[in-house]
DNA sequence: AAGTGGTCTAGACCACCCC
DNA sequence: GGGTGGTCTAGACCACTTA
């Protein structure tokens, strides 16, 4: 009568009264309000504000993280999972798709779903997007800090206007900072945002605040960052800020960050001290189905 | 979703059905052509080997590329598109999701679907993953070429073994190349692949062949590339290969490429001449739903 | 209140893998 | 053949936006 969740953790799903682990994994899922006679249905419930497919994905993810599902293991068939989780197959597949995107699962057509090694600790160490300065600092347990060189609005020059798709002369908020970790200068960050997009910018103290966070709080949905990365010799102007000899290598990262409608929001040029910083990211490739001949 | 190629595989996709005529079915949004004459039903046909949702996505994409749908424009409501394309709403939404991931569309809950400026020419110039050497060459209309310095199998050292999660001493195929564009040296590429994963490697002529393509042809499904990028001074050994003075800046790109099960397949270290190369990529950020209080 | 996207379902058929 | 994932449908309800 009790439906089991996978192999090792039969207790999590279908058991009404104990069932604490799943409840927490999924969300509120208040069990007290349970109908009392429908144990299996208690697995995932509509009480939670999260969509079912997110909940389902979380349940499976937590099983993996917990170690109940080892890499290489096969998952139960989709139709069986549907029964256990009490959701439709379409919904389950949406949950599985999410986990594929996160690198936690992979499927083979006639064979089944398999746990794929990554997706847990590895995933967190290799972000799918560029690790931000603040994130790096946190990972290395260093204290991030900024020295503000300029934080003021000025009319946009021709070049800046073109870069951000705005009219020349439009008020542009400039933020130039030296970024430090534990008081060691790591990079020079030269950013510009059209003032109209976040009028409160001049009032923020950027010695500690994160520009990215301020923009998100302003309701901007930053979705894409077109980037170029190159290696250069540091020039006499920048060298003292980074405490480098002129001619030493620096890493140049230039980004134009766009919102969901493709509108440029932020232009940023970061000059990292070559010897003190290293960009980290993980590129993924969607599984393709391009058979050359069927 | 974001997210997709990191190798020289841009041209692999087998486009069999050109399907140009269908295009009008979507763009014209002609309300008068109701159920009366049934022209819309001919829009997508099951004769094609491609799934319907791919076909639908291609139709919309071609409308955007063609300019029939300008950035900022609103698409017809989903239910109407379904009727025009003669597919179910679930299928249509899968097609739309693909276009969102490509950055061509975006949706707002109660408002509708909007064309988002990017996704056409821009998209092609800003790949979601690192532009490969071959792709860069093609974009710049230069001729790529390699000088092979080493192409041989050797037992894996301790470091190599750890990097690739194999036993020390396992046969490892080493491929060291100088990569050139129009006969100008651009980079040194030092790669290593466990021989067992592609036993034919030693027989390939890498003066012209692409290592990625060979691995794909061997049936390996390369899915993820954990990467670090840094800036260094070129050392006396590498300098002559790149025709640089010792101490000049180079860009160091190190990647460990994994297959779908998370197994490391390829380790590659590329040293780009700082003055002659610039990495290009477009990072995407998943829309997040981290409200602190619901 | 009407329009629109977001979620979910139950059931169907097909294509692939392995016995 | 039987099991399994991949695709597709028609219809339903909910949540958000706009009026």
TrEMBL record, chains A, B:
<dbReference type="InterPro" id="IPR028978">
    <property type="entry name" value="Chorismate_lyase_/UTRA_dom_sf"/>
</dbReference>
<keyword id="KW-0804">Transcription</keyword>
<dbReference type="InterPro" id="IPR050679">
    <property type="entry name" value="Bact_HTH_transcr_reg"/>
</dbReference>
<dbReference type="InterPro" id="IPR000524">
    <property type="entry name" value="Tscrpt_reg_HTH_GntR"/>
</dbReference>
<dbReference type="Pfam" id="PF00392">
    <property type="entry name" value="GntR"/>
</dbReference>
<dbReference type="Pfam" id="PF07702">
    <property type="entry name" value="UTRA"/>
</dbReference>
<protein>
    <submittedName>
        <fullName>GntR family transcriptional regulator</fullName>
    </submittedName>
</protein>
<dbReference type="InterPro" id="IPR036388">
    <property type="entry name" value="WH-like_DNA-bd_sf"/>
</dbReference>
<feature type="domain" description="HTH gntR-type">
    <location>
        <begin position="50"/>
        <end position="118"/>
    </location>
</feature>
<dbReference type="InterPro" id="IPR036390">
    <property type="entry name" value="WH_DNA-bd_sf"/>
</dbReference>
<dbReference type="GO" id="GO:0003677">
    <property type="term" value="F:DNA binding"/>
</dbReference>
<keyword id="KW-0805">Transcription regulation</keyword>
<keyword id="KW-0238">DNA-binding</keyword>
<dbReference type="GO" id="GO:0003700">
    <property type="term" value="F:DNA-binding transcription factor activity"/>
</dbReference>
<dbReference type="InterPro" id="IPR011663">
    <property type="entry name" value="UTRA"/>
</dbReference>
């Amino acid at each position: 009568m009790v439906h089991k969740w996978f192999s090792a953790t039969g207790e999590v799903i279908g058991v009404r009264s104990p069932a604490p682990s799943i409840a927490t994994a999924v969300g509120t899922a208040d069990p007290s309000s349970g109908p009392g006679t429908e144990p299996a249905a208690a697995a995932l419930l509509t009480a939670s504000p999260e969509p079912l497919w997110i909940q389902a994905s979380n349940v499976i993810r937590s099983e993996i993280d917990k170690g109940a599902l080892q890499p290489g293991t096969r998952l139960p068939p989709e139709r069986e999972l549907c029964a256990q989780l009490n959701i439709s197959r379409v919904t389950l597949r949406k949950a599985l798709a999410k986990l594929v995107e996160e690198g936690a699962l992979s499927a083979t057509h006639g064979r089944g779903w398999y746990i794929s090694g990554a997706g847990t600790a590895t995933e967190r160490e290799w972000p799918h997007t560029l690790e931000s300065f603040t994130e790096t600092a946190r990972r290395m347990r260093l204290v991030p800090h900024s020295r503000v060189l300029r934080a003021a609005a000025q009319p946009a020059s021709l070049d800046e206007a073109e870069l951000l798709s705005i009219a020349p002369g439009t008020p542009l908020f400039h933020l130039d900072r030296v970024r430090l970790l534990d008081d060691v200068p790591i990079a020079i960050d030269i950013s510009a945002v059209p003032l109209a997009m976040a009028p409160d910018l001049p009032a923020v103290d950027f010695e500690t605040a994160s520009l990215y966070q301020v923009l998100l709080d302003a309701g901007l949905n930053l979705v894409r960052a077109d980037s170029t990365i190159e290696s250069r010799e540091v020039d006499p102007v920048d060298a003292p800020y980074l405490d480098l000899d002129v001619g030493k290598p620096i890493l140049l990262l230039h980004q134009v960050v766009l919102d969901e409608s493709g509108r440029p929001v932020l232009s940023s040029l970061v000059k990292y001290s070559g010897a003190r910083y290293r960009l980290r990211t993980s590129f993924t490739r969607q599984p393709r189905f391009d058979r050359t001949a069927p």
